[in-house]
TrEMBL record:
Listed InterPro entries: RNase_P/MRP_Rpp29-subunit (IPR016848), RNase_P/MRP_Rpp29_sf (IPR036980), Rof/RNase_P-like (IPR023534), Rpp29/RNP1 (IPR002730)
Ribonucleoprotein found in the keyword field: no
Gene: Pop4
Name of the protein this chain belongs to: Ribonuclease P protein subunit p29
PANTHER family: RIBONUCLEASE P PROTEIN SUBUNIT P29 (PTHR13348:SF0), RIBONUCLEASE P SUBUNIT P29 (PTHR13348)
Amino acid sequence: PQRPEEAKAFVNAFLKRSMPKKKDEAIQDILTRKAVVLEHYSKKKTKQKRKKPKGFTAKQRREMRLFEIEPEQQRYTIFLPLHELWKQYIRDLCHGLKPDAQPHMIQGKLLKADLHGAIVTVTKSKCPSFVGITGIILQEFKHVFKIITKEDKLKVVPKLNNVFSLEIDGFISYIYGSKFQLRASERSAKKFKLKGTIDL
């Protein structure tokens, strides 16, 4: 058995190791109490920074030709199933496109919808050669639409200075390209004014 002096020395040493931030006077004060609450100091874990995966640069995407459609794939009939899928997507988005639906509600939904697969027609343009182009939108970029026509020709039509019409189940919507120069992913957060302007 330990003598009282040895026991006291052991307790003092134990408390000093357990509570390194306490001074000797504070430890002696703690010893006068009936209960001793030991403090626990956890070691701070260093957080490892997660490396974000780097995507391709615009130059690399161009060099890899990621967005180019091969000539043998540039056929209108190949993309008709895409158009059917798009129509079903719009019907679901607009809750069925019922005859009593409010036009401005459908217009607002269409402006924010994904247009890949939609059939559009250029109705007005400052460049007469664009007027009348009709086809399925294959790709939408910030400033242009890539459209495949029934003649299996891939047309790159700028949004600027062009007005596009879009028809589905009897509803016709007009898109003013000059006010529509956004990426498809950015449109969902954009607030559009439904009262458009006739200016190109």
